[in-house]
Amino acid sequence: MKQILWSTSIIFALASTVVGSSDTDGDSHLRGLRNPITNPTDDVSLGTFRMLSELVEKEEELENDETYMPPQVKETPKHTPVSKSESASAKAGLQFPVGRIGRYLRQGKYATRMGAGAPVYLAAVLEYLCAEILELAGNAARDNKKSRIVPRHITLAVKNDEELNKLLGGVTIASGGVLPNIHAVLLPKKSAK
């Protein structure tokens, strides 16, 4: 209802400023014009007066109608939310940095051209190998009743796994030690009774 009354007052204010008022002394340039609201004499003033009175009647009918709902004004956000850029690792669902691996591949001059999927594939392979080694090293740490993985556990994990031992056969892990192994010949002989 406040919106209806507000719009009615706006219409009257616009009509009086467009046509002018003969009563005010400050508006000397509008002195000869008639106000259609107070003095509807000529055809234009009568038409404007009828139109405004019809608008007022319609607004009064709407005001008395109990089912009438005034139009809701949608509040537009001050700024549209910008979607955050997603990293290549997040797009691929990986933890290893796809962009950094791609940069290393480009800087290493391994090839003159490189496909877009090459760093993603390499990151996925490296992540899988690390997860496999960490799982086996965690098992070795748990077997030794330790809660922290140390290089010794990684060495035991790699040396006890056939495929990883073949892959990392020429790799030396610092502070890793060796597998516990004593040749059978060196063991003391059992005495027969």
From TrEMBL:
**Which Gene3D superfamilies does UniProt cross-reference here?**
Histone, subunit A
Q: Which domain of life is it from?
A: Eukaryota
Region: Disordered, residue numbers: 60-89
Q: Where is the Core Histone H2A/H2B/H3 domain?
A: 84-159
Report the GO molecular function annotations: DNA binding; protein heterodimerization activity; structural constituent of chromatin
One cellular component term from this protein's GO annotations in UniProt: nucleosome
**Does the record bear DNA-binding in its keywords?**
yes
Q: Which UniProt keywords apply?
A: Chromosome, DNA-binding, Nucleosome core, Nucleus, Signal
Q: Which PROSITE patterns match?
A: HISTONE_H2A (PS00046)
Q: What is the residue range of the signal peptide feature?
A: 1-20
Q: Which residues form the Histone H2A C-terminal domain?
A: 162-193
Report the principal subcellular site.
nucleus
Indicate yes or no for the key word Amino-acid biosynthesis.
Answer: no
Compartments annotated for it: namely: Chromosome; Nucleus
Against InterPro entries, the record matches this protein to:
H2A/H2B/H3, Histone-fold, Histone_H2A, Histone_H2A_C, Histone_H2A_CS
Family per record: Belongs to the histone H2A family.
Assembly: The nucleosome is a histone octamer containing two molecules each of H2A, H2B, H3 and H4 assembled in one H3-H4 heterotetramer and two H2A-H2B heterodimers. The octamer wraps approximately 147 bp of DNA.
Query: What is the name listed in the Swiss-Prot or TrEMBL entry for this protein?
Result: Histone H2A
